[in-house]
Amino acid sequence: MPSLVRLTDLTPDEVVEIFDRARALGETPGQELAGRAVALFFPPTSLRTRVTFERAVHLGGGQALLFPPEALDKAEDLHDVGRYLSNWVDGVVVRHPRIEVLDRLAGAIPVVNAMTDVNHPCEVLADLYGISLRRPDWRRLRYVFVGADENVGRAWAEARDLLGLDLVQACPPGFELDGVPAVHTLAEGLDGADVVLTDGTGHLGDVFEPFRVSAAALRGCAPGVLLNPCPPFTRGAEVSADAIESPAFVGHEFKRVLLEVQRAVLARI
């Protein structure tokens, strides 16, 4: 299995193949990982990503071996750690703040990125799959990301680079993503948007308050707009409670298919 550390590790055709495999596998028990083992490195606070990866291994007939990410914080060269692990497991899924940890392991064993401080590729891949189920024209839609230059936004920037998405960022000055067109008012960002994406901004103070996505603000979007906040989101912070209760909100539905996508990613082992 080639590693998936960044979305740009894939080709556009491979993205479509993962979506097709996710649709075929669904949540029905199978044997695509029969006789295989996957080491999962997750902190105790991980919820959605850990549950779906661990369940994906079990549904595929494989064995999941769980470790805290601190097990990788050692003086031993991680290339050597990866070589040793490759004797016993077929791949590793890692959530770790430092992406260089994953890069070093990937030289010795297949690695799937379950989130770093730099990016969150599987989260965005699953969101795109959810969008594709609703909108077959998903590659021609207008996407707006409301948030800062942090890991979720950078993963969407990777998706833009890989797939040629029409992606715009709405944020205050000073929080722009590298290489992504930015606007500095929420209304301008939402104007005509087909998909609205958000990330948590509460830790940044009040600077993002004018960018809170509300049901009223969504009226400036295209008909049938999809609102997909990245969890964990806070009602009343990056999104208002009435936006979450609006017909545009698809967050819970899209996270259901996270399991299918994690399973399809692991099936590449």
How do the strands and helices of this protein lay out in sequence?
Elements: H1 12-25, E1 37-41, H2 48-59, E2 63-67, H3 78-85, E3 91-94, H4 99-106, E4 111-113, H5 121-134, E5 142-146, H6 151-163, E6 166-170, E7 182-183, H7 186-190, E8 195-198, E9 226-229, H8 241-244, H9 251-256, H10 258-266
Parallel strand pairs: 1-2, 1-3, 3-4, 5-6, 5-8, 6-7, 8-9
Q: What characterizes the major β-sheet?
A: 5 strands, parallel
- Unreliable sequence segments: none
Radius of gyration: 19 Å
Strand order of the largest sheet: 7-6-5-8-9
**Quaternary structure annotation:** single chain
Strand content: 5-15%
Structural category: alpha/beta
How many domains would you count in the coordinates?
2
Write the H/E string, N to C. HEHEHEHEHEHEEHEEHHH
Question: From the 3D coordinates, which CATH architecture of the largest domain would you assign?
Answer: 3-Layer(aba) Sandwich
Q: What's the CATH class of the largest domain, please?
A: Alpha Beta
CATH topology of the largest domain: Rossmann fold
Net shape: globular
Number of strands: 9
Report the mean per-residue pLDDT as an integer: 96
What report would you give on this structure?
- InterPro entries: Asp/Orn_carbamoyltranf_P-bd, Asp/Orn_carbamoylTrfase_sf, Orn/put_carbamltrans.
- Keywords: Transferase.
- The chain has 269 residues and is α/β, with parallel strands linked by helices.
- The strands form 2 sheets. It has a 5-stranded parallel sheet with strand order 7-6-5-8-9. A 4-stranded parallel sheet has the order 2-1-3-4, sandwiched between helices.
- It is globular, with a radius of gyration of 19 Å.
- The longest helix is centred in the first third of the chain and has 14 residues, at 12-25.
- It has helices at residues 12-25, 48-59, 78-85, 99-106, 121-134, 151-163, 186-190, 241-244, 251-256, 258-266; strands spanning 37-41, 63-67, 91-94, 111-113, 142-146, 166-170, 182-183, 195-198, 226-229.
